[in-house]
Design a protein that fits this description.
The chain is mainly alpha-helical. The chain has 13 helices and no strands.
Length: about 230
């Protein structure tokens, strides 16, 4: 399978490399703390432009992700078909998240569109690695922001996971928990009231990280784009 698609993968990588710039590559490292040993410095708008010319191609998406290139991973999330994404694929990609951008892009642009999203939130919230645990709450935030017509019940049932994880002092976890809480609070009156109750409890906690999450959720609106909660 891979052999037949090698030319397509190479062509995509060649395009990404040609549209990369050193200033943008340096920015990834300096501003966003993303290791650039496998990054071309291609902007997301350019990656999106290439994705539009490719369309949905699940097989190519899997191969692009496996290259390990930062922009190829982003392209993979855009050309992957949510209907063909399996729980196994989600777990494999989650375990391969190298930074918050890998995590948020996959959750915000692809994983939240799959029927496996809520189950993965539950499973990944138990993970130990920082970006894998972040994925649980980045995915929950993405679902809450995009799924405005679905029932509140799944979100209310997952709310305790946010409260439980609010004591994780790791930067990329606590910020994702905050993002998830704020996003859930933006989707309906019932969710907002429930999220606010959690935030208020956390805001007066004896645990510093919980106070940070709680106070932030009580005063800041939800972010509306992936990566802004890094």
């Amino acid at each position: 399978m891979a052999g037949k698609r090698d030319p397509d993968v190479k062509e995509a990588l060649k395009w990404l490399e040609a549209h990369g710039t050193k200033p943008y590559r340096d920015q990834l490292s300096v501003r966003f703390a993303i290791h650039t040993d496998k990054a071309y410095g291609t902007s997301m708008p350019d990656v999106q432009k290439l994705a539009k010319t490719i369309g949905k191609d699940q097989e190519l998406a899997l191969l692009l992700w496996d290259t390990g290139w930062h922009e190829a991973k982003a392209l993979a999330t855009l050309v992957a078909d949510p209907k063909q994404v399996t729980p196994t694929q989600m777990d494999a990609w989650c375990a391969d998240f190298q930074n918050w951008a890998d995590c948020d892009t996959a959750c915000f642009l692809l994983f939240d569109k799959t029927p496996h999203a809520f189950n993965k939130v539950k499973q990944w919230a138990k993970r130990k690695p920082e970006f894998e645990k972040r994925a649980a709450f980045a995915l929950l935030a993405s679902c809450a922001l995009h799924d405005k017509k679905g029932p509140d019940k799944p979100y209310l049932e997952l709310l305790p996971l946010c409260e439980k994880a609010a004591n994780d002092e790791r930067n990329f976890v606590k910020k994702a928990v905050s993002w998830a809480l704020r996003s859930m609070g933006s989707r309906s009156v019932e969710c907002r009231e429930a999220a606010l109750e959690v935030a208020e409890r956390l805001a007066v906690s004896a645990v510093k990280t919980e106070r940070w999450v709680g106070k932030g959720c009580a005063t800041r609106p939800a972010q509306t784009a992936c990566g802004t909660a890094s």
